[in-house]
Design goal:
two-stranded parallel sheet, mainly alpha, single chain, 2 strands, about 50% helix
């Protein structure tokens, strides 16, 4: 009878376990003091992304500078370049397929350190969707952070893209990552632009679960977390919190890292 009233878990147990393991990995290797004391939940609002925009590149550059600042990477030699040409596809995420195929490199990731500034570009179509653009930047930066760290994520190098989405959420970009995880593909042709969407690896439910875990670890109230979420995601967020709270054996070790 009690199980009848128990809310359905948002994600399956294997995904839940991987999510907790990935947050434990992040807290172990990516500055938990920064996470607990200074990381903020970044919102898609003018308060977080102020600036007077007079061009598409100006929009891209302003968002980029804010994302770099909130990610705590202002000290990195990062440089945003305007796309010289655009083939209709979003800039590719880092390709670690060689690492996955090479068994001798199974416990390493390629180091991306360079004497020259680390150049990044962007999909100009995303200038019309600032949240997707900010999320794409956050994911690309998270990829570089993990690759530079040489730390293999839980599950191995084949989980690089998924784990770096978690790192982007870990850095505070979970609301925008959740809002851009899935885009409805219906409607009239003029209403939908596939080129403007973020390339998501994790499912929408997994992103919401990661956002909920971030908020639970940071003690962020539900209202603050859901204020700028898509309407239908607010129920999923609360469902994720209930699932997290039923996992004290997994949650408490993470809280103990404060």
């Amino acid at each position: 009878m009690l199980n009848f009233f128990r809310s359905k878990p948002l994600i399956d147990d294997a995904s839940c376990e991987w999510m907790f393991d990935t947050f434990a990995w992040a807290l172990t290797h990516f500055d938990r003091q920064e996470f607990f004391l200074r990381t903020r939940l970044i919102q898609p609002t003018n308060d977080f992304f102020p600036g007077n925009i007079d061009s598409r590149h100006g929009m891209a550059e302003t968002i980029f500078n804010h994302v770099v600042k909130y990610a705590g990477l202002s000290h990195w030699p990062l440089q945003l370049q305007a796309p010289q040409f655009f083939n209709g596809q979003a800039p590719a995420l880092l390709d670690l397929s060689a690492v996955q195929r090479d068994s001798s490199a199974a416990n390493t990731l390629p180091v991306l350190a360079a004497s020259q500034p680390l150049a990044m570009t962007y999909n100009p179509q995303q200038a019309a969707k600032p949240g997707d653009l900010a999320s794409s930047y956050a994911h690309h930066l998270a990829q570089h952070v993990v690759a530079q760290s040489q730390q293999i994520p839980p599950g191995g190098a084949e989980y690089f893209n998924e784990s770096t989405e978690i790192i982007a959420i870990f850095m505070g970009f979970g609301v925008m990552m959740a809002n851009s995880a899935y885009t409805f593909r219906g409607g009239c042709g003029s209403c939908y632009n596939a080129q403007a969407n973020r390339q998501a690896t994790l499912s929408e439910d997994n992103v919401i679960f990661a956002l909920a875990l971030f908020c639970r670890l940071k003690g962020i109230p539900i209202g603050d977390a859901t204020r700028n979420l898509k309407g239908y995601l607010k129920r999923n967020f609360k469902q994720a919190l209930k699932q997290i709270d039923r996992e004290p054996a997994r949650l408490q070790p993470l809280l103990a890292l404060k």
